[in-house]
Amino acid sequence: MKPNIIEGCPSCSSIGELAGKSEEKKDYRLAHWPIQIKLMGTVIPFLDNADLLVAADCTAFTVQDFHERFLKDRKLLIGCPKLDNAQLYVEKFTEIFSNIPIKSVTCLRMEVPCCSGMTAVLKEAIKLSGKDIPLDETIIGVKGNVLSEMGV
Ligand code: SF4
Fold first, then answer.
1. Is the CB of 57 under 6 A from ligand 1?
2. Which structural domain range is residue 119 located in?
3. 109 CA: nearest ligand 1 atom
4. Would 125 be classed as within a structural domain?
5. Which of 18, 46, 83, 133 is exposed most, by the fewest CB atoms within 10 A?
């Protein structure tokens, strides 16, 4: 697959680090744009040496303090392993992990079975990339509580 930095969304013209992000709202911790996995290419400069949080879409609307709890000092990518094409996710993350040194990956997903696919995608992509990247999984209950946090 040919490496590329960005794919197909006008909003992505602002790719990269967000300047002055925390001046007005101290709890606003999103450090870059875009964030959708589907929009990303396979070379993502802002992930260089980053702690990456891959969050299933529903988690952001379920956890009340999502920003404060999960975004601090992490770079974020989001998606849905059920409504999107999970095999394409595997291929994209394999390329990303192969192209860029990443310190760690945390998968944040919902407790419902459909969401376990996100962890499986990341595990497979790390394996296929041949990199030794630590992967943690945090499972969120439908009431917004953290059910478990562990390495996988
Ligand atoms: S897999 Fe299910 S729970 Fe997870 S983000 Fe998609 S719709 Fe939400």
1. yes
2. 28-151
3. 4
4. yes
5. 83
In a domain, 93, yes or no: yes
Q: Is 80 in the pocket of ligand 1 (CB under 6 A)?
A: yes
Q: Is 110 in the pocket of ligand 1 (CB under 6 A)?
A: yes
Instruction: Give this prediction's pTM.
Output: 0.88
Residue 110 CA, closest ligand 1 atom number: 3
CATH number of the domain residue 41 falls in: 3.40.50
pLDDT one-digit tens code per residue, 4-46: 555 545 555 445 666 554 455 566 688 889 999 999 999 999 9
102 part of a folded domain: yes
Domain count, the chain: 1
From the number of C-beta atoms within 10 Å of its C-beta (0-12, 13-18, 19+), residue 129 rates as: middle
Is 22 within the bounds of a domain? Answer: no
The DSSP H or E segment spanning 91 is helix 86-99
